[in-house]
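Quick one, T. Sequence first:
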Amino acid sequence: MLPKIGKIDKEVFEKIIFPNLGKSNERVIVKPRHGVDAGVIEIDEERVMVVACDPTFGMPVLMPFFGWAIVHICASDVAVLGVKPEYMIISLLLPPETEIKTLENIWQQVSLECEKLEIAIVGGHTGVYPGISYPLNGGCTVFGFGKKKELTPASNAKIGDKIVITKGPAIEAAGILAYQGEEKLKKVIDEKLLKRAKNLIWEMTVVKDALIARKYANAMHDATEGGLLNGIYEIAEASKVGAIVYEEKIPILEEVKVICDYFKIDPLISISEGTLIITVPKERIESLIKELQDNGISAFEVGEIIEKERIFIRKNGKKEKLLPVKEDPFWNAYFSIL
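Structure tokens:
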């Protein structure tokens, strides 16, 4: 069965998508896999091209930031492979009766963020179509070029690597819910705390995080749907290794905890674009965390890559299996206040 909303799960992917990938090509060295957000094509013995494609759901709350979100969400999927995003193609779909000013605002944001990240827009499609409630990024594709030996795919975690995360869990979930549910929340939450939660919208990117971490990391992955625990599981699954994660080591921002408590969702399995998961050799961890922190990005060690078992240890010491998340709780919370 398909999920009510959001990405298809691993079972559906492996049954329908994975066996049907068109013509086999040996130059595709990172192929489509569940939990792997970009592909890698070999150019020659040393160089590769990294390609990632993402939609951006046209949430009403995202409209003031929609162009910004399109660029950073798509570019993040290239950056986590350890490659700088360089080129973009975008398909922007608009509902009937969209005002020209709306298109202008979105496009100027897209262009400005691409300029900041040094990404050239090289093509795409923009049009008006029925059946769309809000502007929709129907597919943004970002390309980058790098060296094969410097790639950091989710499938490259090594036994003994430490697991480091940036910022903390549920960054995206808390930021979006704070905006969408502002009228309800401001009646029960401190104004300054609510403002901090809303500002998390601008943390929904791992481009900067990943371009700093790439010289230290073996594997990187951003914690999108299914959140932090699902992201760590996906790294372990892609790398065919185990992982141990400690709840007591996972910092949850006060504003994230308050928002998630209000909506009764678990921040550890809620969507978190903006949280980068890094596996790094033990001897590099101090340098990695220091450079991230020196650049204004908080970072924390939360676990380790081990041989087989995938374990989540609760604060009370209880051991649980680290399993894929079937359905992200964010979506029900979001649509409850739409």
